[in-house]
Design brief:
By secondary structure, the chain is an alpha/beta fold. It has a single domain (5-168), classed as 5'-nuclease (Rossmann fold), CATH 3.40.50. The chain contains seven helices and eight strands. The protein has helices at residues 19-26, 32-43, 59-71, 97-106, 124-132, 148-154, 165-168, and strands at 9-14, 45-54, 74-79, 81-84, 90-93, 113-117, 136-141, 158-160. The protein has a six-stranded parallel sheet, with helices on both faces. A two-stranded antiparallel sheet has the order 4-5. Strand 4 and strand 5 (90-93) form a beta hairpin. The longest helix is centred in the middle third of the chain and has 13 residues, at 59-71. The chain is globular.
Amino acid sequence: MKRTCADSTYAFVDASNIIYGVMKNEGWKVDLLKLFEYLEERYHASRVFYYGGFKPGNPEEYTLYENLRQIGYTVRKKRVMYYHEGGGRITMKANCDVDLTLDLVRYIPLYRRAVLLSGDGDFIPVIRYLFKKRRKVAVIANAVKTSVKIKAMLGNSFKDIRSLRHLLERK
């Protein structure tokens, strides 16, 4: 049965914030197949976007993104840029937030609910915009690292990803 906008859910995964954030801050890895299945089962997501960076010529990343496509993700990748900071530190960033935001807005006619997997406070304006467009919004993110304003805006529609470890952890 094809879903209509009235009952359709789209999910948007910010890999930097969620996938790598969980690994760095919590010490466990998200199984991306389990995550996809969770979003389908729990939220009835009809489309799941994955936003991540890539380094040209990296065969492991190429394999990862091909596997994600086979699972069913819509992959949005952006070339990693290197930024030189003080003290000789180099930071790598893909800056996919704008791409994710654009898709949140671009696809509004096609979904009734958005599930955002990012706790980044930069998404507050687009969340407000989605509310004005009468869209439901749920956020899944690390509660410790999530903007206080996002948690306050969403109330019960905020889910701490740490509470999903038993469902999503890669073994």
